[in-house]
Amino acid sequence: MNPTTRLTLSMWMLIAVAAMSGCSNPLEGTAGTLYVTNEISGDLSVIDVATERVVATIPLGKRPRGLRASPDGSLAYVALSGSPIAGPGVDETKLPPPDKRADGIGIVDLRARRLLKVLAAGSDPEQLDVSADGKLLFVANEDTGQARAIDAASGEIVATMKVGGEPEGVNISPDGTEVYVTSEQDSTVTVIDAVNPRVLLTIPVGPRPRSTTFLRDGSRAFVPSENGGSIDVIDTSTHTLVVRVPLSGELQRPMGGVASRDGKFVYMTTGRGKTVAIIDAALNRHVGSIEAGERPWGIAISPDGKWLFTANGPSHDVSIIDVERRVVKARVKVGEGPWGALFVPASGGSR
To answer: What is the model's pTM?
Structure first.
């Protein structure tokens, strides 16, 4: 072998080693923190996504589920409930009585990593969202069939509205003007005026709707029907059903979703289906699935759209999913019963 050949081979080896070391953890370019509520252990896991590890655990209280960040990303609001856990098929008459003292919205300082206080928010809050200016919290009270608008600073209840039995999903439209609240029992979405809180109208949807995912331009809303194994697409300008998208495969139980920043896809967890369903937003069609983990529910997406994060309750972990390759890159152990997921970029903000 002549010197030129040896030099060329050496150069290629160096390039290969550099490339391998540079791609050992592609999440290093994703600056931000993932927060996951753990319903059973009653705490919040703080995950550094660049290193794929839990860096802190914040005690919260009983049954933390839905969570949202303030517009500047400095605070997290977490729904806490003293009602006992009752899964499908459970005889609720045999459960212990609810601890109403534990109900409320916990306010977490994300920089100091501690619970600041708990706001009274009505009975059994499950999910919530924050107004675009950060002044109002909209909360679903599951066992009373109500939604509340609450002053985020003072805790004053601004409005209480009937929204159907077992309300769950609470999602504010991208322009900040409307709130969609799903009713599991009545199979409806109640549309609320987010500026002057009041019920505007009700939209019939498939059985047991769990959440709403808006495209970033706000033109359409995707509402999963857990018991129907389908997703309803709603035209937000007319508040009418455009199409019902069936999910192919076994045990498809769509739960929570996120939209890609470019509006091309909606990603929806499927619970007992163990996958994330991929919906083509232009075709309104289920075009693929990604194996995620045991009963994925909460889901978040990185700002660049390259990574999905799912909270997998029974396995007590979070899946970090490579969107382009459609594979789980890593699974991170968190607390018991992970439920909700929130990604906050290093630059702050969550929308």
So the answer is: 0.90
